[in-house]
Specification:
mainly alpha; 7 helices; 0% strand; rod-shaped
């Protein structure tokens, strides 16, 4: 939902009408503004209403100020600029915009595909590492059992494919 500036007592102008018994809607405000008087008063483009009025008045300096302050005004100016172009220039701009849209969409698709592929490769690598770690742990368990029954370290080395240092480390740990 859009946030609108609340009318303050200072900006309310009593037109002499009878006050309504109830508000028609809290989301709509009505303003009756004479642009020549607004331009003569020359307010800054601080409020959203002033920013839109300067867009209607067409004073470039104030429009630039409004574009910096209000993203909606900026978008409106871009649309107005495009609409005021000759048909060939507008078609060229639309083509550029469509190209940029499709390029960004293609990049997004490539990124998502790469992300999916990377995750799958990561899972596969994780499975392989897990299998390898499991194999090493199993070999260590076998080596520990063989050490307990007094099998020679060289035989354990050949049977488990563990290094002599690893087997000696296991032997030292089991003695503690």
């Amino acid at each position: 939902m859009q946030n609108f500036d609340k009318a303050t007592q200072e900006t309310y102008i009593d037109m002499g009408y009878e006050e309504e018994e109830e508000i028609a809607t809290p989301y709509m405000e009505m303003y009756f503004i004479e642009l020549p008087k607004f331009i003569k008063k020359n307010p800054e483009a601080k409020t959203k209403l002033e920013q839109w009025l300067w867009l209607l008045a067409g004073e470039e300096e104030k429009i630039e100020m409004a574009k910096k302050e209000n993203e909606e005004v900026k978008k409106a100016v871009e649309v107005l600029d495009m609409m005021s172009m000759d048909p060939k220039e507008r078609e060229r701009c639309e083509s550029i915009a469509m190209y940029e849209f499709f390029r960004q969409d293609a990049e997004r698709i490539k990124f998502e595909k790469g992300l999916k592929q990377g995750r799958e490769e990561g899972r596969q690598e994780g499975k392989e590492e897990g299998k390898q770690e499991g194999k090493i742990e199993k070999q260590k368990e076998i080596a520990k059992k063989m050490l307990k029954i007094g099998v020679d370290i060289e035989i354990i080395e050949k049977a488990t494919e563990l290094t002599k240092e690893e087997i000696e480390k296991l032997n030292n740990q089991s003695k503690k």
